Amino acid sequence: MSNENQFGQPEDKLNPGLAILSFCIPIAGAVIFFMNKDTMPNKAKTACYLALAGMGVGLVLNIITGGLASMR
Q: What's this model's pTM, rounded to 2 decimal places?
């Protein structure tokens, strides 16, 4: 499967591997965003949203685990 559309232009869609990377390592999502924001805005926006979601999940997990640790 090619990464180009029917007109020979690169597809403006974030592949699943980079999506997982953006979520698990938010700084990678920020790098992907800044590398693609001008040429592939949909790919950049998806990477940015996933990086923000990954940061949010990480923050919630830190709050939960910190609260559980203080209960001991």
A: 0.82
